[in-house]
Design a protein that fits this description.
With 394 residues, this protein is of the alpha+beta class. It contains 15 helices and nine strands. Helix 4 crosses helix 6, helix 6 crosses helix 13 and helix 7 packs parallel to helix 13. The longest helix has 19 residues.
């Protein structure tokens, strides 16, 4: 049995640059088997871990509903189902799978899958450090509402922390229906080692308590600043940006538009009203739509605990842009996996389905896929490749 899916699935893409892990990792089925099983011991016909692993493989192949997942699982032959510890002939009903997912512990499921993704991401070659300092990785925090989950009690809203470079979700929590993302921020990051990480977030999470927590836990922050922090925003706008030198400029053309970004940095003055603030940042984005010819200019401000010289100006600009990779992840879930159109609404099932999508996208990215739609087409057409995730074929 292979030590991890990395060394097997690397053969699916010739351009992959991942290396084998230094230590054996558990198989995906073993990881998911550790999730608490909510079912009574009497009458269990399906082992939890293999069943959830096959559900993941169905999602990896593009399944967007419980019915499609169960049809995918039913398509495997009897011998394979027997090797997985599943009934060889009994057909799994979509309603049965839905009831199981609705009763799973969402926190335990996310903890298991996010830890698994983090271990696989650690198998990548380390980035080249600048000078003698270790490299810094961006970790974006943002939330997403599962619009199709709407019931009388509202909709499911999830807050996640996602690596900029690999688009893998390292932590996820469900936001309380009567609250918002702000109270969920601290619990979300509590179980993570923040050393070597730069936490990026939009203006909603530009909170003094969040900054203190991140720095106390050994990390750095890079927050956008808008009107929800009026005093800080006013101070940032008043800095002498006209006199500041241009620190970084990028010019990109894609998706039918040209965007020029100009970044200036000011070392934070004493008395700037935010904990551990070391540098203030101004970014001007000039965007021209080639179809309409319309040009828009937007100025945004940010603040960071990174001291001057810790990273290059280009790397700082990349961290600001990299935060939006989490929005790209949400877009993939909506467009490729039709998440907002999903009608899975009961219990924790909407959260579990979202987590399966996160896991499928994360695995595809780590394997080397740059186009998730192409990845789903591949694994739908080549199910044997997906089965290698379970260590069943070589």
């Amino acid at each position: 049995m292979p030590s991890s899916p990395i060394n097997v699935l690397s053969r699916h893409l010739e351009h992959l640059t991942l290396t084998d892990p230094a230590a054996d990792l558990p198989t995906l089925a073993e990881v998911l088997d550790a999730v608490p099983d909510p079912r009574s011991r009497r009458g269990r016909r399906y082992r939890l871990g293999p069943l959830l692993a096959l559900a993941l493989l169905a999602v990896l192949g593009g399944a967007t509903s419980l019915a499609k997942i169960t049809r995918f699982i039913a398509g495997y032959d009897c011998d394979l189902r027997t090797r997985l510890g599943l009934p060889p002939t009994i057909r799994l009903a979509a309603s049965t799978l839905g009831r199981l997912l609705a009763r799973l512990d969402g926190d335990a499921f996310d903890a298991a899958t996010c830890t698994y993704l983090a271990q696989l991401a650690a198998c990548q070659p380390p980035q080249t450090a600048t000078a003698t300092r270790p490299p810094l990785l961006g970790l974006a925090v943002d939330g997403k509402t599962l619009r199709g989950s709407r019931t009388g009690d509202g909709t499911v809203h999830l807050l996640a922390a996602t690596r900029h470079d690999t688009q893998t979700v390292l932590a996820q929590r469900q936001v309380d229906a009567k609250s918002n993302e702000i109270p969920a921020f601290t619990p979300l990051l509590r179980g993570l080692d923040l050393a070597g990480l730069v936490i990026t977030a939009d203006a909603l999470h530009t909170q003094a308590d969040h900054a203190r927590q991140i720095v106390a836990d050994g990390g750095h922050y890079l927050f956008l600043v808008k009107g929800n922090q009026p005093t800080l925003h006013r101070r940032l706008k008043a800095l002498p940006w006209r006199e500041a030198i241009l620190n970084d400029r990028t010019d990109e053309t894609a998706h039918g538009r040209r965007e020029i970004r100009r970044m200036k940095i000011c070392t934070a003055r004493p008395g700037l009203p935010f904990p551990h603030a070391a540098q203030a940042i101004q970014v001007k984005r000039r965007r021209t739509d080639h179809r309409t010819g319309k040009t828009t200019i937007v100025t945004v401000y940010a603040i960071t605990s990174l001291p001057p010289g810790r990273i290059t100006h280009a790397q700082l600009a990349a961290l600001i842009r990299g935060h939006w990779n989490i929005e790209a992840l949400h877009h993939i879930r909506d467009v490729t996996y039709r998440e907002d159109a999903s009608r899975v609404r009961t219990g924790t099932a909407p959260r579990i389905m979202a987590s399966l999508r996160n896991l499928a996208i994360g695995l595809a990215r780590l394997i080397g896929w740059t186009n998730i739609a192409a990845a789903t087409d591949h694994y739908r057409s080549h199910p044997a490749d997906g089965l290698q995730l379970l260590g069943l074929t070589i």
